[in-house]
Amino acid sequence: MTVRKSIRVERSPEIAFRVFTEEIGAWWPGGFSGEGSRLSMETRVGGRFFETRADGTEYEIGRLTAYQPPNVVVFTWRAPSWDVTTQVEVRFVADGIGTRIEL
User: Is 14 left (phi over 0), alpha (psi -120 to 50) or beta?
Assistant: First the structure.
């Protein structure tokens, strides 16, 4: 099954990409463990997408499989209760003075 969603933001692709990847912990409300947890991405191919829990332990959600600033980031995603891994692709497309973010 494929799910497609998009949103337009009033920021350049460079800024939107940076905020999505480097500042994901600032805008994503907690991780799987809820309050006190924080999401992070190691911004390179092979880098981890992970949650740091309030007690300091980490849960690896997935790995970055493509990292092409400011155009695309692709990563695997696996929740603790899932049997399989999902692939997520996020594209950042210039749209006038803003950016269309396509998931």
Answer: alpha
- Cα→Cα distances 72→1, 34, 54, 78, Å: 21, 28, 30, 20
| Alpha-helical segments (H) within the chain | 13-22, 24-27
Q: Angle at CA 10, nearest 5°, toward 5 and 102? A: 20
pTM score: 0.90
Helix (H, G, I), strand (E, B) or coil at 17: helix
Checking DSSP bridges between strand 98-102 and strand 6-9, what pairing results, if any? antiparallel
Angle value at C-alpha 61, between 68 and 79, nearest 5 degrees: 130
Give the count of beta carbons closer than 10 Å to the beta carbon of residue 76.
15
pLDDT digits (tens, 9 = 90+) for 47-91: 999 999 889 999 999 999 999 999 999 999 998 788 899 999 999
